[in-house]
Amino acid sequence: MTQSHSIQFKQFEKHRNMAVRLFEGKEHAAAYLRYRVAPQELISKIMSYVEKKTSKQFNLAVDVGCGSGQGTVLLAPYFTKVVGTDISGAQLEMALANSNPPNVSYRQCPAEELPFASGEVDLVTAMTAAHWFDRQRFLQEADRVLRPGGCLALLSYTMDMELEYRDVSNKLNDICKEFYAALLPFRDPYLASSPGKIYSDMFDSCSYPSKEWNDCLRISRTLPLNGYIGMVETFTSYQKLKQKDPVEAERLSNDIRNKLLSAMQVSSPDTEVSVVMKYFYWLACKP
User: Fold this and answer.
1) C-alpha distances in angstroms, 77 versus 18, 204, 246, 266, 284?
2) Predicted pLDDT at 214
3) Is residue 192 very low, low, confident or very high in pLDDT (cuts 50, 70, 90)?
4) Side-chain-side CA neighbours of residue 106 (13 Å)
5) Rounded-to-integer distance, Cα 90 and Cα 68, Å
6) DSSP secondary-structure letter at 83?
7) Residue 280 in contact with residue 156, Cβ under 8 Å?
8) In this prediction, what percent of the chain has a pLDDT beyond 90?
9) Distance (Å, rounded) from C-alpha 59 to C-alpha 69?
10) d(Cα 227, Cα 215) in Å, to the nearest integer?
């Protein structure tokens, strides 16, 4: 990280405008970078929509709540300039330490106060992040920075990831449900009962006449079993359990891992499984 970035992080103190601040510890940020999936298939969907809706102006894309930048860098081939923004210095340090294309940069700021001129941005995205924002203020800010004809893309996925492995997928998913059920009491009340409901409410409140909702896109990744466990451990519900009772959190992870290994009839947690994530997303074009 450059000295200027270090100074920027140290001097940055505004936090009042972010509805919820999470993912700020360096250990959590590192796990986020290591285990979270980059949704390449969704970038293709977003860009297909953008290309249909807008004149061929692909100058600036802004990825809000970019975390460690896995999704941000996927926009690089399509735009002259891509800027990832996040309120977490730890996440941005991870993003900067990663290999970034030359047209990708990062800025630290709240989602509701983007450092761009009105009408400057061609695409605003938020990938698995908008549920933590002050939602109405974020939508107003996205509208401010978007040019006429610019697009907004918000996406996330449901917590109930599924595993596929030979002929024991159903057994594995029953065990996964135990994992999710154990974490449910630690779910942040800010998320209410369903992240999908948060996004559908934001979709309904978006005043753009040209918009579309997409309910479920299944994305599969081949990962070591430990990669699946690690991904669940990045969830805020697991992190809250870990803060409250680290011994219990480790016991839960080990118990689920051992049950999955037993059902798979293998001994190595590096054995690869297919992890299926269920994404929902919505797209809108500013008049």
Assistant:
1) 30, 31, 41, 41, 21
2) 95
3) low
4) 33
5) 9
6) E
7) yes
8) 73
9) 19
10) 26
Q: How many CB atoms lie within 10 A of CB 204?
A: 11
Q: Which amino acid is at 211?
A: K
What's the chain's length in residues? 287
* pLDDT reading at 14 higher than 60: no
The residue-averaged pLDDT of 218-234 equals 92
Nearest to 131 by CA among 109, 113, 152, 157: 157
The one-character DSSP state at 71 is T
Going by pLDDT thresholds of 50, 70 and 90, the confidence category of residue 16 is very low
Buried b (16+ CB within 10 A) or exposed e, 104-134: bbbbbbbbbebebeeeebbbbbbbbbbbbbb
Quote the tokens at residue 1: 């990280």
The alpha carbon of residue 283 and the mean position of all alpha carbons in its chain are separated, in whole angstroms, by: 16
Question: In the beta sheet, which residues pair with residue 124?
Answer: 62, 152
Q: 150: which 2 tokens?
A: 């610019």
Q: Which residue has the higher pLDDT, 111 or 57?
A: 111
Rounded to whole angstroms, the Cα distance separating 86 from 68 reads: 9
What letter does residue 17 receive in the DSSP assignment? Answer: T
| Residue 202 to residue 81: CA distance in whole angstroms | 27
**pLDDT band at residue 159 under the 50/70/90 scheme:** confident
Residue 100, classified by CB atoms within 10 Å of its CB into exposed (0-12), middle (13-18) or buried (19+), is middle
Supply the DSSP symbol for 108: E
Q: Which residues contact 7 (CB under 8 A, 6 or more apart)?
A: none
Bridge-partner residues for 84, per DSSP?
A: 63, 106
Residue 17 has pLDDT above 50, yes or no: no
